[in-house]
Amino acid sequence: MADGPAVVTQTIVDPQAQERTLTARAPAWTEYLRSGDGLVPCSSGSSECLVLSINGNNKGEKTANNLLLDPARKVPTLNFLGFSNSSASNFTDVELTIDVPSGFDATALVLPKATSTLPGLTQYRYSITLLDGTTMTGVAKPGDTITQTKDSPMRTVKLYPNMLASGAYTDRAESCTTLVSDNADCAGKSKMYLQGSLAAKYDDGTPVKGGDMIKTLFTITIPSVRMKDPQPGELVTFTQTVSNTQQVVLEEQLVAAAGTWGQQGSDKQPALKNAGLLSTMVSVGGNPTTPYIYEPIFYYVLPCGTVYNNDPLTWPNSHGGVTGDLEVTTFQADDGRQVVKIDYTGTGYKYYTQTGATNAVYLNNEPDAISGTYPWQIYMVRPTTKIDTKADPTTPPADTTYVQGADKDVYLVGQGTWTINAAKETRTTELSQGNAADMFESHTTSNDLSAMNSLDAYNDDPTLMRFAVSVSNNESQPLQHIREFVAIPKSTGDSTFALNLTGPVTFDNLNGSGTSLPSYTVRYSTQPVAFTTALGSEPSTDGYVEAADVKEWSAIQSLVIEMDTLPATTVMGRFILNCSDETLYQDAQKSVALETGLYAQKTDGSAMQPLVITKSDKGVATISVTGQSTVIARLHWQVDGVDHYAALDDLTHSYANNLDEFPALGLDYPTHTSGMSSADKALIPEGYVMKDKEPTIIGDASAIYPGKGWTTGVAVPGTMTRYNYNGNVVQYELVPKAVLQRARAYNGTLADRFGGGIPADAADEQRNPQELADAAYMRALSVDGGGAMARLSIPKISVNIAVYHTTLDDVLSEGVGHIYGTALPVGDPHTYTVLAAHSGGVQGMLFTRLSEMRQGDVFYLDVLGGEQGYRITDVRTITPERMERTLQQIRDAHQSGDATVTMVTCMPIGVNTDRLLVTGVRAPVPQSIPAASTQRDGTLIAVGVGVAVFALALAAAIVVRRRAKRRHGTRTR
Fold it and tell me: Which sites are catalytic (predicted)?
């Protein structure tokens, strides 16, 4: 094709010997050229001038052309394909064929994009045969995606481009990544993508297995031209086939790579907070075939003189919006360095490596850090995913305590250095180490119940608390006559506690620094030290003795560290005070601070300004005690005398000791099944229901607490949480449903027993209440062994009280009584129950406010954990002599309907001449009646009851002129 209009210029000499210029113009034109013979496009007669290319789903150097067998993961591109024409001919009858192998679930083909490298190619006709025999035909444009029309994989793909011009070519057919498990299209590249996934089975139904080899064929055919057959040398139809064989690999065969990144600010002083960070990141080397590492464990080995700041990880690793539920812990290696462990074990998380800095930990420079440059490392342990260590083939660490003893599948992810530059000054520094701290830091904590760090000394004795004092002379001249006084922390009020020395001061020379450190002496006193900041003065050392002369370490109140000289640019290592808190178990929310004073002379004999650190100063070291008590909940039942339990995990709560109130039952711990979650209710075994009583709190009688003078205990609702609440159990008792079945059986005998009467006041010949002699009645619906059968709740008038068998005096002094001769309150249709209680008596409110109830109001009965709701349909007042007849009439009126309950009490209060009857009919909860937990007393009033008002037993008033002594009886519990 010409670039533009053709112009021809010619100069001639005419017969008169004159030169003349002739110019001719013509429009642009197109002419397709063929080779000389019109049959063989490639000069050698071979197929080398028309080239096909095909590659697998990744370009890994070590494991190129691998396919991951993972049904849960789709591999977007199975094969990359391309073609080119370097002949002098243009072709319009090209046929491209892809033979898709069994084992590929090929779902789509992406065509090369329209580019200047494919001139004249404007469309592809296609014919695609699916596994089920279906043929797809059509026309597609460059860049289109041809997708299967049925849920059957592609098996043969034929493409007919309208033009394959001379010099045309696609981009090279290869993946843009080494990754097997996260293959993606190459954005902007013009090539073919065979897309889909690796199938679980071959077409014949046999499973695809790791190690299988799967081959894809790619063929070009041009019917109009010829090529020499390599064997006989004869001309045949032009055709060329290339193939790609890929191996099926399992996820554990994949290789990942990761790198590290450390950053430190320009300020490298000791005591600097957030001085820099260490993190992992994408590897700049290596040859990974997967971007994922399954459940790795990282060990960040921090440089000397630094500690983790304990903030949450910065830039936590995530991919696709998912962040692993990792665990971050710390421990101290044998060489004294702190290690931050980032552990994904058991989370199912696949750590994503193709990212920038991630899982960064910020470091604090320790106050007594020594000037120098210190190495750091990040190791990883992962037995499932292999790691490419090509960039740094380092063996596992010589100090295996860096990785908690792991001796295989350990990889050095990366390493670097950290610099400390101390100011040229004299310093005294303090550090602390409570039982929750792995390292010495300025402010640490101790747990009141057990050691929380990884150090054996603390696990052996959780009361151990340590302070460290260090003296640094970073100036150019030595110091003389050095005296470092230390006050042993003692309690000064309710917010502090006392520490006792457990032995002599020990010394740590800070990782071998200063091999020729000066000698020192430590002496002790049973008297407190009086610090002074006056220039030229210092506390007296009278009465201070050496360790050999100390009679009782707990009596020591101060000590002094003495040195004759401290050379210039020398850091005297840590002097460590080993202390004990003998009342640790009760010291939550308390703290102690270390007070010190450094006194010295300069080279010329003049006094150095004293460096005194008091408990209010910025540089003071402290230990704070924290702790919490965890109270669990469980169900308890018996089968043939054997105890069984089920944990109620969602009812396990923790409370800060000496800070949080252990709540009243009914708040964190429901008192009825109506307040429990559906998951908790589902744990109640078939055939059992919960007793109608508050749960029991069981203390941990086997507990042992750190310190002296502790006692075990039982949590008391409504009190401040104490150390011995930890491990307590809130236990819910279950009883067999047979109790309910016995109650129903008893209700079925009422008509035969009482002939339609309600003999609540029946007595035998000795005038003893008849119900006490009725063993069947007393056993039926006895849910707690004490006569309780249910719990009555009337939210409107703030009633929530147990219902007991009988209406004897001792019953009505405690709660609501069940009137003998009426149905036990199981809530079944056609049953009628009568309940009675005092009003206006010394027993409490009981039914005192029953007169406030109106038709439409609701009340509830909880029987063996089942909530029954009742809506009031009848409120009436009668005289005592009409009682029994009226109750029978109400029963008869409702005997064909739902369960009915009548509540009875005397009125007016203090006069008791009448009887108030409030009747309700059962309705479903919550469809017709809201759950009891949603109801409140909106008109709570105080009812003053004079102590002169005597309680009248309702049962004594059921029948006129019945003598009280007939109802005197005692339940057997």
Answer: 838 (proton donor/acceptor), 906 (acyl-thioester intermediate)
Is 805 known to be catalytic? no
**Do 256 and 291 touch, CB atoms closer than 8 A?**
yes
Assigned token pair, 485: 């006084």
State the CB neighbour count (10 A cutoff) for residue 611: 18
| Higher pLDDT among residues 499 and 56, named by residue | 499
DSSP state of 731: E
**Beta strands of 322-423 (E only): which ranges?**
322-323, 327-332, 338-343, 350-352, 358-365, 372-381, 386-387, 410-420
Residue 707 CA to residue 497 CA, distance in Å, equals: 13
pLDDT tens per residue, range 425-457: 999 999 999 999 999 999 999 999 999 888 888
Exposed / middle / buried, residue 372 (Cβ in 10 Å: 0-12, 13-18, 19+): middle
- Which letter does DSSP use for residue 775 in this model? H
Residue 869 to residue 674: CA distance in whole angstroms: 12
Q: Which pair of tokens denotes residue 280?
A: 């992992």
Q: Which of 437, 617, 434, 454 is nearest to 533 (CA)?
A: 617
Question: CA–CA separation, 36 vs 225, rounded Å?
Answer: 12
**How do the domains of the chain map onto residue ranges?**
50-252, 254-420, 426-626, 628-736, 739-967
Considering the candidates 319, 653, 818, 838, report the single residue annotated as catalytic.
Answer: 838
**For residues 479 and 518, is the Cβ–Cβ distance under 8 A?**
no
Question: What is the token pair recorded at 891?
Answer: 């029963």
Q: Do domains 254-420 and 426-626 have the same CATH topology?
A: yes
Alpha-carbon span 419 to 375, nearest angstrom: 9
Choice among 49, 304, 579, 906 that is catalytic: 906
Q: What is the DSSP string of 478-546?
A: -EEEEEEEEEPP---STTB---EE-S--EEE-TTT--TTPPP-EEEEESS------STT-----TT-EE
Q: What number is the average pLDDT over the span 678-703? A: 88
SS (H, E, C) 562-614: EEEEECCCEEEEEEEEEEECCCHHHCCCCEEECEEEEEEECCCCCECCCEEEC
Residue 109: φ, ψ to 5°: -130, 125
DSSP β-bridge partners for residue 433: 466
Taking the whole predicted model, whether its pTM rises above 0.70 is answered as no
Residue 750 φ then ψ, to 5°: -60, -45
One-letter amino acid for residue 780 of the chain = A
Q: Kindly state the percentage of the chain with pLDDT values over 70.
A: 88
State the amino acid at position 110 in one-letter form. V
Q: How far apart are CA 416 and CA 277, in angstroms?
A: 12
Query: If you average pLDDT over residues 352-364, what whole number do you get?
Result: 94
960 Cβ neighbours under 8 A, 6+ residues apart: 880, 881
Task: Return the pLDDT at 968.
Answer: 47
Nearest to 454 by CA among 287, 616, 341: 341
- Specify the pLDDT at position 218: 97
Closest CA to 198 of 57, 385, 348: 57
DSSP H or E run through 682: helix 678-682
Residue whose structure tokens are 């209060």: 909
* pLDDT tens-digit map of 229-252: 877 778 889 999 999 998 888 877
What are the tokens at 179? 């990754």
Class assignment of domain 426-626? mainly beta
* Spatial separation of the C-alpha atoms in residues 259 and 179, rounded to whole Å: 16
In which element (H, E) is residue 8 found? Answer: strand 6-13
Peptide bond into 207 cis (omega under 30): no
End-to-end CA distance of the chain: 112
The average confidence (pLDDT) of the chain is: 87
The CATH code of domain 739-967 reads: 2.40.260.10
CATH topology assigned to domain 50-252: Immunoglobulin-like (2.60.40)
Which secondary structure element, helix H or strand E, spans residue 135, and what is its range? strand 135-140
Cα 134 from Cα 150, distance rounded (Å): 8
Question: In whole angstroms, what separates CA 605 from the centre of its chain?
Answer: 62
CATH architecture of the domain covering 254-420 = Sandwich (2.60)
466: closest CA among 579, 318, 633? 579
Give catalytic status of residue 838 as yes or no.
yes
User: Could you tell me whether strands 358-365 and 276-281 are parallel, antiparallel, or unpaired per DSSP bridges?
Assistant: antiparallel
